[in-house]
Amino acid sequence: MAGSLILALSSASCNEQAATTTENGTATEQDTTAMDTTATASATQQDCQPLETRERNSPEQKPTFEGQTRACAIKTNTPLEVTVLASNLENPWAVEPLPNGDLLVTEKPGRMRIVTASGQVGQPIKGVPAVMSRGQGGLLDVALSPDFASDRTIYWSFSEPRSNGNATSIARGVLSEDRTSLSQVKVIFQAKPAYNGDKHFGSRITFGNDGMLYLTLGERSDLEIRPQAQQMNSHMGKILRLTKDGKPAPDNPFVNQQDAMPEIWTVGHRNVQSAALDNQGRLWIVEHGPSGGDELNLIEKGKNYGWPLVTFGEEYSGKPIPNAVTTKQGFVDPVYYWDPVIAPSGAQFYSGSLFPEWQGNLLIGGLKDKTLVRLKIENDRVTGEEHLLKDRNQRVRDVRQGQDGAIYIVTDQKNGELWKVTPGR
Length: 425
What we know:
Elements: E1 3-7, E2 17-21, E3 27-31, E4 80-89, E5 92-97, E6 103-107, E7 111-115, E8 139-144, H1 148-151, E9 153-162, E10 165-175, E11 182-190, E12 205-207, E13 213-216, E14 238-242, E15 264-267, E16 271-277, E17 283-288, E18 294-298, E19 336-338, E20 344-349, E21 362-366, E22 371-378, E23 381-388, E24 396-401, E25 407-411, E26 416-423
Antiparallel strand pairs: 1-4, 2-3, 4-26, 5-6, 6-7, 8-9, 9-10, 10-11, 12-13, 13-14, 14-15, 16-17, 17-18, 18-19, 20-21, 21-22, 22-23, 24-25, 25-26
Domain Glucose/Sorbosone dehydrogenase: 89-419
Region (Disordered): 19-67
InterPro entries: 6-blade_b-propeller_TolB-like, Glc/Sorbosone_DH, Quinoprot_gluc/sorb_DH_b-prop
């Protein structure tokens, strides 16, 4: 049965705790009374208070420009109603609304299923290939073909087991009329190189207004492979731009560059699990940074976003990132960064009619602080931030807007849930 709860929202208050986080978003909290004395320095110079007031993980790092971190706190005036459409989902990773109002959901161990708009949970869809379900790996994102209404094709990303390790791959298949199985299943893209690790697979898949498929990839985390985020003969730590058949888009920026992977669109990313198009069709991503360095980036063709040479964070051990700086000519500065981190996953620019005050805002899943993050963005700068649904105490893994204007969320836990968020009465 679906349950519901109406939430009255209020602005976040000062939190007298500092959090040291792992990449997977878990937190070890320690009591402290130290407040960040520079909290207001990075907020825009308005009559406001920054939302984030906790001690920084990397207090020695300073923003490159005003408003790049610790934006003003904003508040949603509309009460939110959260309906639990489904529970007992095992570490759901993605939710994709279907044209009829039902929801396609992936579970990390390797299952894909449909939850109806009324909350009926379907059996696992047959035909999904084997995944490497370990650590951060498994069955990950899912997206509908731009022509789904006529071709019933879906695309999904997953950590694929290979003879020499594993890596992120994309497959596609045709959903049967009764929605119980996939046919014509084919792996259309395999990221290279394979690596025997269990972290930083990415991966969001998003179809742009140009009809191309954008895939976000992590750099696999470990020190030995991390430098490949800057190496053009590797897919690691990149955003790729592919055709619907998984081939390099013909006008990609490096297709004619010797020793460069032709699929590469942008370079220098750590682990991107959030990607969304704004109302101009531009791609924005939110990526897991190191401790104190989660980033919001506006993606531009052929640009280098810095990792691991340019970052605001530090190693989770507390040591500095080797030879890194916070800004450097030739590298793109993040539009915004978080310190402490939010551990971002899933994102959606809101364009529906149910929440007029959210129009054009970016909604982001927060794993570490178990929250839905709302950013107000004006002239490509963040001017306000709000953390919602914290009282639910669940890790928000993916965020999607339905055709009805409602927000659909899956939560990352053994007993994960699927929520529908609408205005309260």
